[in-house]
Amino acid sequence: MPFTSRELSRETLSDFEALAAKQGSCWCMHYQRPKPIPGGGTTTEHRAINRRDKAKLVREGRSHAILVYEGQTPVGWCQYGPREELPRIDAGRGYRKVGPPAQDARLWRITCFFVDRANRGRGVATFALKTALESIRRQGGGIVEAYPVVSKKMAAVPEWRWFGTPGMFRKEGFRTVAPLGTSGVLMRKTIPSG
Ligand SMILES: CC(C)(COP(=O)(O)OP(=O)(O)OC[C@H]1O[C@@H](n2cnc3c(N)ncnc32)[C@H](O)[C@@H]1OP(=O)(O)O)[C@@H](O)C(=O)NCCC(=O)NCCS
């Protein structure tokens, strides 16, 4: 495996920023906000707000992601975190029907993947997922949720695969719990502390 990984932190923020600048305006902030950015605004304005807010959360230790490197070059990431860090999932209509797990366990979420265009199809996202799960285990484990798209039409568009694929999660032992609307599924796996 030619890849290495580092956690998103103050030290790696500039690497994340280099990649996020190629991705668009989200900066992986969507699921970190309970609600949309108020007051409309242009894509350019949203990009600036998201960049600023992401940097603040990283400095405060409230944003988690695995960054994947090939040599010194960041090539992709997987955003993960405890439920409290990714509250937007709770607002989804499909998710509200199912609800969080009944067990009294720490709940983690895997919400976003991004791989630099030139490096797609080489196992970067797969590596990022394995590393994120290992990191969750080291941080005490719990129930981990994923929300991959199952709609074939949507999954054919790379930009719609930011949640990852059902196959990626199945290979890591995730089980499908319920549909999320007509296009996605909720998957879960329990990771023991270790
Ligand atoms: C989805 C994405 C992360 C996959 O990354 P990757 O490193 O290419 O993925 P991997 O090589 O590890 O393969 C992982 C899965 O993606 C699938 N995949 C990879 N390239 C694919 C392609 N061109 N078409 C369809 N599926 C593909 C693989 O088959 C594998 O799925 P499986 O395990 O079910 O077979 C990447 O395509 C991407 O970054 N897309 C843009 C997402 C985005 O815009 N994110 C930002 C939102 S904030």
SS class:
alpha+beta
CA(first)-CA(last) distance: 24 Å
* Percent of residues in β-strands: 25-35%
- CATH homolog superfamily: Gcn5-related N-acetyltransferase (GNAT)
Question: How do the SSEs run, as a string of H and E?
Answer: EHHEEHHEHEHHEE
Biggest sheet character: 7 strands, mixed
SS elements, strand count: 7
- Give me the number of helical elements: 7
Uncertain segments are none
Give me the CATH fold name. Aminopeptidase
Assign the CATH class: Alpha Beta
Mean pLDDT: 94
Bound small-molecule species: coenzyme A
User: How are the strands of the biggest sheet laid out side by side?
Assistant: 1-2-3-4-5-7-6
Q: Rounded to an integer, what's the Rg over CA atoms?
A: 16 Å
Based on the coordinates given, report the CATH architecture. Answer: 3-Layer(aba) Sandwich
Helicity, as a percent range? 25-40%
- Count of spatially separate domains: 1
- Shape, per Cα inertia axes: globular
